[in-house]
Amino acid sequence: MAAGIQWYGRQVLGLFFGHATYTAFIGAGVGIARQLHGRRQKVLAIMAGFIVAIAGHFSWDAWATVFPIQNTLFGLVEIHLRTLIMTGPFTAALIALLLFGIRYEGQNLLEQMRKEAGTGQGAILPEEVPTLASPWQRLKQRLQAFQRAGPRGYLRVSRLQTAQLDLAMERWHRERKEIDTPLEAEEQLRQRVMELRHWVAA
Known about the structure:
Distance between the termini: 64 Å
Number of helices: 6
Number of domains: 2
Low-confidence stretches: none
């Protein structure tokens, strides 16, 4: 019983809900730093990620030392309560950061898709922007293609959507001066979209 509780606490709750959460904060710090411009801000963001991760792990270890889990059936209840109380707030904060990041990226991609549609080059059409901006609408469009042409239709539309999103992402990174690839790379993505568009229409 004691060995089972210890294994469950360390390998299941501790690994997947504890260490994974703390490590993710380090990645979040690096991700936030990538969106900042000043070197000092970048360093502070990365340090903040490490500090939060260390604080989370320290609080878990301190709790485990002061309030050890009993090797009884009630210990299973205790270990879940400890995980909820000590790791829960960190996990909730991480989920909030994730949702914010997804929203931030989505807003910027939407802006770039609108700009690309405004060029009139045909890689992204104005009426396609709402669909490309919504994961559910993209899935709906792929399923409609599946109903019309089977797996091949689904695959063709999926590749077209992916290429269009890649183009918007390329534009976003270039606008933020995060890449130094020549402008021809963006044009190649645009040509790729046009080729896939003809392939889908065929």
